[in-house]
Design a protein that fits this description.
This protein is an alpha+beta fold. It is 20% helix and 36% strand. The longest helix has 20 residues.
Length: 216
């Protein structure tokens, strides 16, 4: 298995175990190029929020956010494309109208997968997944940058598609930034099977458990 992909699984699993749960979330990078709209999820059976058209049924956004296109100096920058064309699509930026804030994306049902195209990753960006108002998993810009890998300093020429597999069931996604800005596009959500990377990681964790039992 690809070493970087295994590292991604281990980082996510460690985050979940530290939070006091045995469920391992698998975080991977990579999507399908969709010029001039950046990248979209490669995961089958998901629904995409592209911010260029009406929100899917049951989805609503609340908080300090704007749906914009292009770039505005000091406020937001359009995530770049995989190709050379400028990104002319609309995207989500947080916060809006103030230097710190968040958006809550209510999905109207429970899911276990989420993905989005993340531009100019900053250490002060974070995403949280909630169910019934309670946080079930969170992920920071610093963690995201480590998976690319890059520095979490808002490099505007870089964007990456992030996939969160096997999340604890969630119905709301909260994106927060304590400075300008957190720019994302092509959000995707759905209920998908556990990916092979997480299954292999689970086997590894079982093996560790058996080895400890044998020693005892």
């Amino acid at each position: 298995m690809n070493r970087a992909l295994m590292n991604q699984s281990l980082v996510a699993a460690a985050a979940m175990l530290a939070a006091g749960t045995l469920q391992a979330v698998t975080v991977t990078t990579g999507g399908t190029p969709d010029n001039p709209n950046g990248q979209v999820s490669s995961v089958a059976g998901t629904t995409t929020i592209d911010f260029d058209s009406a929100l899917p049924a049951g989805v609503s956004l609340t908080g300090q956010y704007s749906i914009v296109s292009g770039s505005s100096s000091g406020l937001y920058a359009a995530p770049p494309n995989s190709g050379s064309d400028a990104n002319t699509s609309k995207y989500l930026t947080v916060p809006s109208g103030q230097s710190s804030g968040s958006v809550a994306i209510a999905l109207g049902a429970d899911y276990n997968y989420y993905g989005f195209y993340w531009g100019s990753i900053d250490s002060y960006n974070s995403v949280s997944f909630l169910n019934g108002g309670s946080e079930v998993f969170s992920f920071t810009g610093t963690q995201a940058a480590a998976l690319v890998p890059t520095s979490p300093t808002g490099t505007q020429s870089l964007a990456t598609y992030f996939n969160f597999f096997d999340l604890p069931l969630f119905d709301t996604v909260r994106m927060t930034s304590t400075q300008y800005a957190f720019e994302t596009d092509n959000h995707a959500y759905g209920s998908v099977p556990l990916p092979a990377t997480a299954a292999l990681l689970g086997i590894g964790l079982i093996g560790i458990g058996l080895a400890r039992r044998k020693r005892s």
